[in-house]
Amino acid sequence: EVQLVQSGAEVNKAGESLRISCKGSGYSFSTYWIAWVRQMPGKGLEWMGTIYPGDSDSRYSPSFQGRVTISVDKSISTAYLQWSSLKASDTAIYFCAREDSKSYSYWGQGSLVTVSS
Amino acid sequence: QSVLTQPPSASETPGQRVTISCSGSSSNIGSNPAHWYQQLPGTAPKLLIYNNDHRPSGVPDRFSGSKSATSASLAISGLQSEDEADYYCASWDTSLNGWVFGGGTKLTVL
């Protein structure tokens, strides 16, 4: 069974760094792109970027380029989303999702990030 | 402002049919497949329709999708109370070199 399991809720202060994770199981982790999607409180879905675990090739939405870093450790089947300096506006739920021929068939449960100013 | 445009809300009574539209451009829906996701309150999105009109295994045939030129539509027939959710369209955008989502449509079953 394909599963994407994300790390738990985080509460941080503005200016702090943070890394959240997404662990894949039940499939060949290295051969499917993993994307990160943001959902701000009460708002819609926003595609942030994606990474190919096989070679760590990553691509970003212009809206998020330079603001976050997407990385992967294929040895432990885990993708990461990290910030070097959080802002209050980063408060959101972040989902990881696996891309395949059907678009995004599998999603993580979401990680709530709360940033206080 | 989302790249794909959806109506913010839709409503219909149980048993009836509702259609949700998604308007894009030549760089996304006009040249790439459209996909639809259902998000129930407090849960992760779920793939509902892929490649314009295909249903993943387990999705009832009450849900159907279509695409014409730069627009896509999601139709739900025989509405049930459990269909009350947010619905999002999505497509790859060749110009942006990334995925784009619609702003979402909140469906209310009256």
What would you note in describing this structure?
The complex is a heterodimer of chains A (117) and B (110). By secondary structure, chain A is mainly beta. Chain A has no helices and eleven strands. The termini of chain A are far apart. The model of chain A has no long low-confidence stretch (mean pLDDT 97). Helix content of chain B is 0%, strand content 45%. In chain B, the strands form two sheets. In chain B, strands 1, 3, 4, 7, 8 and 9 form a six-stranded mixed sheet that branches. In chain B, strands 2-6-5 form a three-stranded antiparallel sheet, with no helix packed on it. The chains are: A mainly beta (117), B mainly beta (110). Chains A and B meet through strand 5 and strand 10 of A and strand 3, strand 7 and strand 8 of B.
Terminal CA distance of chain B reads 28 Å
- Beta-strand content of chain A: over 45%
Largest interface (CB < 8 Å) = A-B, 22 and 25 residues
| Main structural class of chain A | mainly beta
Based on helices, strands and strand pairing, what is the structural class of chain B?
mainly beta
Instruction: Estimate the global geometry of chain B from the Cα principal axes.
Output: globular
Oligomer status: heterodimer
Features:
heterodimer, A: 117 residues, mainly beta, 7-stranded mixed sheet, 4-stranded antiparallel sheet, 11 strands, 0% helix, globular, B: 110 residues, 6-stranded mixed sheet, 3-stranded antiparallel sheet
Topology readout:
The complex is a heterodimer of chains A (117) and B (110).
Chain A: E1 3-6, E2 10-13, E3 18-25, E4 34-39, E5 45-52, E6 57-60, E7 69-73, E8 78-83, E9 92-100, E10 103-107, E11 111-116
Parallel strand pairs in A: 2-11
Antiparallel strand pairs in A: 1-3, 3-8, 4-5, 4-9, 5-6, 7-8, 9-10, 9-11
Chain B: E1 9-12, E2 18-23, E3 34-39, E4 46-49, E5 63-68, E6 71-76, E7 85-93, E8 98-101, E9 105-109
